[in-house]
Write a structure and sequence with these properties.
The protein has about 140 residues and is of the alpha+beta class. About 15% of the residues lie in helices and about 30% in strands. The protein is built from three helices and ten strands. The strands form three sheets. Strands 1-2-7-8 form a four-stranded mixed sheet, with no helix packed on it. A hairpin with a 5-residue loop joins strand 9 and strand 10.
Length: about 140
Amino acid sequence: MFDLKRCAAVVAGGLLPLLVVPFTVGQADATSAVRISSVQYDSPGSDTGSNYSLNGEWVRITNTSTTRKSLTGWTLRDTSSHVYRFGTFSLGAGKSVRIHTGRGSNTAADRYQGRGWYVWNNTHDKAILRNGSGTTVSVRSW
């Protein structure tokens, strides 16, 4: 647990000349074995709208457990109500899957939304992962 008084004493004593800021994982992320592990919201290069460029933006979802997890019926969405719904899909133990914006052939490691334009805003947005019951299990904001 973060102890503010102890930290202040260390800094005041000259033992730690930097600011310590506590970091707390959101409750949903702390309890879910399946979570958003990274987001590439700004497609590399110019935003040309090509399928290649659209697929340059993606969200990586990782299963941190030791068992396979079904994501059937789960959703990934942004704050503008763009929603990707998983069809029949399971994510292996310790595995990740990237959800790309554009078109492509779905595999165990890469899924495609099939969109014709970008989903994730470059300056600020939120990726929200919900399970099949609609409960938010992971959120990443920028």
